[in-house]
Sequence to fold (399 residues):
Amino acid sequence: MSLIQPNSLLPIPSGTLDIPNLPTDEPPLRFSLVIPTYKEAQNIPKIVQQLSQLLDAEIPGEYELIVVDDNSPDGTWKIAQELMCDYPQLRVMRRVEERGLSTAVIRGWQAARGEVLGVIDADLQHPPELLLKLWGEIRRGADLAAASRHVEGGGVSDWSVVRRFLSRGAQLVGLVLLPGVIGRVSDPMSGYFMVRRECLVGRPLSPLGYKILIEVLARGKVAWIGEVGYVFQERIEGESKVTWKQYVEYLQHLLRLRLSLGHIGRLLRFGIVGLTGVVVDMGMLYLLSDPNTLGLPLTRSKIIASELAIINNFLWNDCWTFGDIARRQPGLRQRLKRLLKFNTICLAGLVLNVLLLNLLFNVFGINRYVANLIAIAAVTLWNFWLNLKLSWRVTDVQG
Ligand code: GDD
Ligand code: MN
Fold:
């Protein structure tokens, strides 16, 4: 009979990243909180102590903390293992082969015994006390409760402008590629949330990089989402492991989800139509404004060129990209209504385009055609997302 040592490490699940049903041979816990760690030696005693204090008061004896460490060189897993004597609800997994934040979380959830599965960073940048508010959302009936920096009471401490820009930029790209997923929460980058196990059972997960919440929203059966505002704290000990690799993995993750969730055709078609619009815009800008042709003033030429490109794009999108939806709203009047909406949205984008073009050309001295291309690319993201949300989607609902 193998006596399990009181502080033995958890066996490491292998194979696919599926969340199993709860075992029937033992009473379930109510809550399992995974703490993914890599080089968090100084933080792990503090976070375990603070979480235990909070949860012992709220759900004593009905929760577990699961540290999943990727063989940290600073011995985080060893420190956590030694803490198990003082914290009986603490369990520790030391991974050696498989690595990475999101798979660490899922392997922890696979070993978990709770009806609700959660994740929190080990470095105290996620305020532990917020856990009780998230738990309150689940108690109210939410399937998933996420801590958000972008709702009332939310924020980031003193992040650099670059980090803020990168975070929001990444969110915008996600909104374009996966509006039905990224648009469901105000902070899809959050790594602090909890979700009912039943939402994930039988839903094979295949995350990439850091953003486990996106994977859960995309593949889980999540209906009701609760959000709680929090301020992302400054890290005291250790340093962030986020590098450019995580941003590349994030894009790969979005594209993989986009392809596996379907509708890539619509997005691709919108992009191809956009390219024809670029040809019309650039061609007309040359014909109207180039000193070797009509030599008209730049802004006037740009407005005429863009309006012709907008009409070109609308006709292609209405017949091809969103043709299946448009055909349910036949008739000239409906089409003109769609053209008006499309044009209004794209005109707002046109203003943005002209401002950007002038800024890049007149202030930064960038070649007018390169400046125009950069301006068009930025506005394309704007146009896709707003049109998807307003022009065709609204028409579709009236159908
Ligand atoms: N097991 C394991 N393996 N844990 C990891 C790994 C890994 O490869 N990389 C990071 N972690 C752990 C860290 O130890 C920490 O507990 C947590 O994951 C977040 O890592 P940070 O390096 O501190 O990330 P951050 O501060 O830049 O936070 C960003 O990512 C977090 C995780 O998604 C922000 O986007 C946060 O909102 C987000 O929670
Ligand atoms: Mn951190």
